[in-house]
Design brief:
The chain is an alpha+beta fold. The chain is built from four helices and four strands. Strand 1 and strand 2 form a beta hairpin. Helix 2 packs parallel to helix 4.
């Protein structure tokens, strides 16, 4: 495991960078294993603005009574070419990206995953997903089908 590196006052960035290049940096990415058994919940967050969709998937485990949360995967999508799309639709695109990312992570982790939770800051998106209205516009309907399949 690499040692902890810090930038000392008076050093240039280039000096610190050169020192860091010689080090082996280690980032813990292990999901928690407790007494030979895995118990992981996935929590996937979706967010969108006029310019970007962001999704992040975290694992949550309880180890010795303490919550252990680790970022497993994240995705972003720049939306500069989608100027005429409304904010609710952009947030719906983020929800679809979240469903895809979660499915991918679940496939990689397999039986370790005990549950999945999704969060969105859009009431409109949540109501679209919960509704069973077959009269939704094609944009919404096509994405709803994929979200439900995932």
């Amino acid at each position: 495991m690499g040692r902890r590196l810090s930038v000392q006052s008076g050093r240039t960035f280039r000096e610190a960078f050169n020192e860091w290049q010689e080090e082996r940096l280690v980032y813990p990415r292990q999901c928690v294993k407790v007494q030979g058994r895995y118990g992981i919940e996935l929590h996937t967050f979706a967010y969108a603005s006029k310019r970007v969709c962001v999704v992040a998937c975290y694992s949550r485990s309880i180890v010795e009574g303490e919550n252990k949360t680790i970022l497993i995967a994240s995705k972003t999508k720049l939306l500069s070419s989608m100027k005429s799309v409304t904010i609710p639709r952009l947030k719906f695109i983020a929800a679809l990206l979240a469903a895809r990312l979660s499915k991918s992570v679940e496939g990689a982790l397999g039986e370790m995953v005990q549950g999945s939770h999704f969060q969105s800051d859009s009431i409109v998106v949540l109501s679209w997903i919960r509704s069973h209205n077959a009269n939704n516009k094609q944009f919404v309907q096509r994405r709803l089908v994929e979200i439900r399949e995932l």
